[in-house]
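Now for one specimen:
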Amino acid sequence: MENKSETADKQETSNFMKFLNSSFGRFALIGTITIILLAPLARVIFLIQERKDRAESIKEEIRSEWGNDFTYSGVTLRVPFIDEKKKKSYIFYFPEQENNRLNVQVNSKKRGIYHFPVFQCGVSTKSNFIPNLNDPHLDLAHAQIGLLSDPSSRIADIGKIRINGKELEIEEETYAKSNSSKLFYATAPFTIDKSTTKINIDLNYSVNGSGKIVLQGHAKKNQFTMTSNWKNPSFTGSSLPNPDSFNLQKGFTSSWKIMNIAQNPKNGSLEPNRYASTDFALVEFLESVDHYQLNERTVKYAILVILLTFTVFYLIELIGKMVIHPIHYLMVGLSLILFYAILLSFSEQFGFAGSYLVASIGILSLLSWYAYSVLRSLKFALTILIAISILYGFLYVIVNLETYALMVGSLGLFVVLAAIMSFTRRLKV
């Protein structure tokens, strides 16, 4: 009985090994190992997200300390209004024309291994008011010119406001109305003569910020000109820069014209936000693709890289008429996943391109040595080295492409599939 049992066990083992060494069995084996590798791959994906979240938290700390988005709201003329009941309020007038020049210098703020772009924006404003000041309830002896600013804007420096050639100091106060709070950088009160028909304003100030600049002038006619050392600006909003004004060399120079024809700046408003411009221009100073995004893009192709690498080993099995142990496939798969961990750790320190090269060379060297040790063939080891080098090179191109990534990736997979079909077309069951 024992001899029959042992014979049956050997027969079952022999049948299993025959199945495992068959074409379908090898495909099933490769699929099973790939599924096993999903667990460490998921850990790498989680690690990338964890490091990305940490970078975002550091970024928010830097922004809160240096400055957030900057929204340009322009200057306004504020005149006290005293009604019959001696109740005091304010009338706000906005410019007839406003010409603004913005010089934006973008630098990098670093904290530990993290660094993010921040900017310092110098603003030079020239505007003129043609207000209707005939209302007897206006207190023309206490008029003020001021700059409306969101509390989140970080005014770094502000000079004196020049009014018709006369310089006045700046005072800061908080204007709260209709559940909105704005900082109002206003001059000391001055007197407007009733015979005044035009008030010319000159103002220079600088703002610390990061992220984006929103240009939303409240004048009837707004002209904006922006120069910057930033090479990758993003322009959005309801008003785009004039095509003829854009110049990109060591930075960019752009200009906008924003018209608010429906507004009548001669007639004031009790609320400054009632004259809010319907058009605005938005310029972003953000890194379009950082190394965390590139790591995420790269790891999305991990399963494809693993399967194609396993396919190369499997084709070598067929060509060389040899059998590779399942443990060898598992070791190869783990080394491919280790590539993404090395890439992430190095890219945080040295950037993506150099780190990709270092990680690729390291893993390719390891796989070539392992393939030679297992297959005992220099020819097959070189074949694996060349094949996986092409695969990693192709992956780098796809990851760095944005517009044509899908098209190039699809064509590449078509070529790979055609090559595999050519090698396997004579397989028999």
Notes: The chain is about 45% helix and 30% strand. The first helix runs from residue 2 to 21.
